[in-house]
Design brief:
The protein has a single domain, classed as Vaccinia Virus protein VP39 (Rossmann fold, 3-Layer(aba) Sandwich). It has 446 residues and is an alpha/beta fold. The chain has 10 helices and 17 strands.
Length: 446
């Protein structure tokens, strides 16, 4: 179960279970004529957060997903001296005022949700027995996107070339100039750019940055929910060089009004800097034609339900902000018409979960947003670093957490029957889809 608790304060989620739901059935190509049925689970190591004061306490810092193993371990940071009131700048004063405003909401709501979860047997502090070290691998997808910008675009060729391609089991797909789809009802373990990735079912993605968004615009879809996780400017991120930050003003260039359907729900992850929240509410959303309707908080807790950082820590807070809005294609339409019959989005709700140990690996919002969008909604995530079943995703690191090294892949002891002589991967997929799982016996398909 992914949503462990739902109440008036919000939701308490099992973030890892939300990921695993899409990978119960995976198909891995084995040569030209065979495919192996597998199950994929996101490695439990990433959600073994049992101590406070930091996400990586359970693991040696050399196992961070961006750490160069050849470098010497960094010295522990010196304890910061507490500032006097007169030493705070305007931004820090605003941040403290914002925290005091939401503190009771965060504290009381989290305590209520955690208590309910413990009554049901969750958040008892236990972690899985597996203690694998976090893999040391560098993500170079953003660099590949930069290299792809030097190549001519499909439009430059003067030919009417499709902007969409279907995942077909080959590694020779143009991921930078076309939207890639996995239309199957199962996940696919496949080679892309010489490495193995796990692609969820009914997912589509475009690996690009601002300069190569045209395939997404030509995709022809209007989205009923758009989730954005911008790379906000941040001193900590700049020091660590985890990713390139984007000036807030550049976000106005995003073609949200082109991609959004009438009444689309727009959700933006915002840092705890009041200037960022003010920018989204007062400048960015009005520029896109979006009306802010609710403010939610993602609260990060340990495996026994404590805040991952002290709630009143002057440096890092155990929560992040989500600003939700509705796109008004027609400014004359009523709020109910903009929602398309969906109930209004409640304000001041909490989304509580044990966070991933991977930087910028946010929990899926698919389950908690479901009541506020139509059943057959088209869904888009922008600045994505992972994929979700049934969603379209865009970003220059969109496959980052889909790399096979983040998953535990288990063969299920069955093999799909061989395809027709033409040997096309799509036909292997169709053969598996057409037969019930119980038909595959002893790996022979007979």
């Amino acid at each position: 179960m992914s949503v462990l608790v739902e109440g008036s304060h919000g939701w308490l989620l099992d973030a890892r279970s939300l990921i695993d739901k899409g990978y119960v059935r995976c198909l891995k190509r084995q040569g030209e004529l065979k495919a192996e049925l597998m199950e994929a689970r996101f490695k439990s190591t990433y959600f073994q957060i049992s101590k406070r004061h930091g996400i990586h306490n359970n693991h040696d810092k050399s196992h961070s997903d961006h750490q160069d193993p050849s470098q010497k371990p960094e010295r522990p940071p010196k304890k910061r001296k507490r500032k006097k009131q007169s030493e705070f700048n305007q931004g820090e004063i605003e941040a403290m005022a914002f925290h005091q405003k939401v503190r009771c909401l965060i504290l009381e709501g989290t305590e209520a949700l955690v208590e309910s979860a413990k009554i049901l047997g969750y958040l008892e502090g236990g972690t899985d027995a597996v203690k694998d070290p976090l893999p040391c691998r560098e993500c170079n997808l953003a660099s590949l996107c930069d290299m792809a910008k030097e190549l001519p675009s499909l439009d430059d060729d003067g030919e009417d070339v499709s902007c969409v391609q279907v995942l077909d089991g080959t590694s020779h797909l143009d991921l930078f100039a076309r939207v890639t789809e996995n239309p199957a009802e199962h996940a696919a373990v496949t080679m892309l750019m010489g490495e193995e990735y796990v692609i969820p079912p009914r997912a589509a993605f475009l690996l690009s940055d601002f300069s190569r968004m045209q395939p997404l615009l030509r995709y022809g879809r209007k989205f009923d929910v758009i989730v954005l996780d911008p790379p906000w400017e941040n001193k900590s991120v700049k020091r660590s060089r985890r990713y390139t930050c984007l000036p807030s003003s550049q976000l106005k260039r995003l073609p949200v009004s082109v991609l959004a359907s009438a009444g689309s729900l727009v959700v933006t992850w915002v840092t705890n800097r009041p200037s960022h929240l003010r920018f989204v509410r007062d400048e960015l959303y009005p520029h896109w034609g979006v009306e802010a309707v609710a403010q939610w908080f993602w609260v990060k807790v340990t495996a026994d339900g404590q805040f991952v950082f002290p709630l009143d820590s002057p440096h890092k807070k155990p929560y992040e902000v989500l600003l939700l809005g509705r796109y008004a294609a027609d400014s004359q339409s009523s709020p109910a018409e903009r929602r398309g019959g969906a109930p209004p989005v409640p304000d001041q709700r909490l989304v509580v979960s044990v966070p991933s140990a991977l930087h910028s690996h946010k929990p899926s919002l698919a389950e908690v947003l479901k009541p506020y969008i139509k059943a057959d909604a088209e869904r888009l995530e922008m600045f994505a670093r992972s994929l979700q079943p049934g969603w379209t995703s865009w970003g220059n690191e969109v496959l980052r957490f889909q790399h096979a090294s983040y998953f535990a892949l288990t063969p299920r002891g069955r093999r799909a029957p061989p395809p027709p002589p033409s040997g096309h991967w799509k036909k292997v997929t169709q053969a598996v889809e057409a037969r019930p799982e119980s038909a595959f016996v002893d790996g022979t398909g007979g």
